[in-house]
Amino acid sequence: MKARHSIWLAVVAALGMTFGGASRAEVDELKMMSQYGIGYMQLTLMKEQKLVEKHLARAGLGATRVTWARMGAGAAANDALLAGGLHFAAGGTGPAIILWDRTRANVDVRGVAALSSMPNLLVTRNPVVKTIRDFSEKDRIAMAGAGSSVQTTYLQMATAKEFGIKNYRKLAPLMVNLPHPEGLRALLSGAGEIASQFTSPPFQNQALENPNVHVVLNSYDVMGGPNTFLMVWATKKFRDDNPKTYKAVFDAMKEATDAINADKRRAAEIYVKEGGGKDSVDKIFAIMNDPQIHYTLAPERILPFAEFMHQVGTIKTRPASWQDLFFPDVHALPGS
Question: What distances in angstroms separate CA 321 from CA 8, 94, 223, 302, 306, one per listed residue?
Answer without folding.
Answer: 26, 16, 17, 9, 10
